[in-house]
Recover the amino acids of this structure.
């Protein structure tokens, strides 16, 4: 594979930039949104939180187990990883992040929490799409084939044969 020069988009799609955006949004939500509960928490929300944390940990550990580049800027990716957790979802860490933010918004139903989690989800999905653009450019047809086989955020449920 011929080495391509990194573009501004390649450099911009960085975990540091993404987390800076999320933290800035969280700070804005803290100051702009109400701190009173929007609804009352229920017992099942705690169970949902436990499932959310377990899912997030599973996705994070699964990604790091098979992809030492997970969590690094996309521009550093040198191969398409399609085994392990990457065989059922293209962005396992973001999948866990989105699920966990959704659960946190339900379990801690304060105006600022819901707004912050919503902002984080928007940033995560935007980042997935930006990373997809970088990976499509870098890997071309091989990445297009991978995209056809594996969903972006919701894990593929494998039916037993």
């Amino acid at each position: 594979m011929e080495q391509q020069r990194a573009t501004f988009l390649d450099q911009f799609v960085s975990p540091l930039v993404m987390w800076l955006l999320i933290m800035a949004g969280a700070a804005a939500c803290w100051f702009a949104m109400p701190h009173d509960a929007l609804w009352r928490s229920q017992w099942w929300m705690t169970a949902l939180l436990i499932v959310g944390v377990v899912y997030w940990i599973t996705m994070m550990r699964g990604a790091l187990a098979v992809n030492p580049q997970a969590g690094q800027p996309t521009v550093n990716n040198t191969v398409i990883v399609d085994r392990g957790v990457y065989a059922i979802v293209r962005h396992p860490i973001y999948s866990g992040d989105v699920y966990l933010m959704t659960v946190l918004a339900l379990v801690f139903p304060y105006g600022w929490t819901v707004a912050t989690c919503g902002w984080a989800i928007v940033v995560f999905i935007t980042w997935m799409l930006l990373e997809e653009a970088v990976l499509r450019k870098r890997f071309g047809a091989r990445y297009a084939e991978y995209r056809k086989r594996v969903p972006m955020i919701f894990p593929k449920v494998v039916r037993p044969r």
In short: The two ends are 37 Å apart (CA to CA).
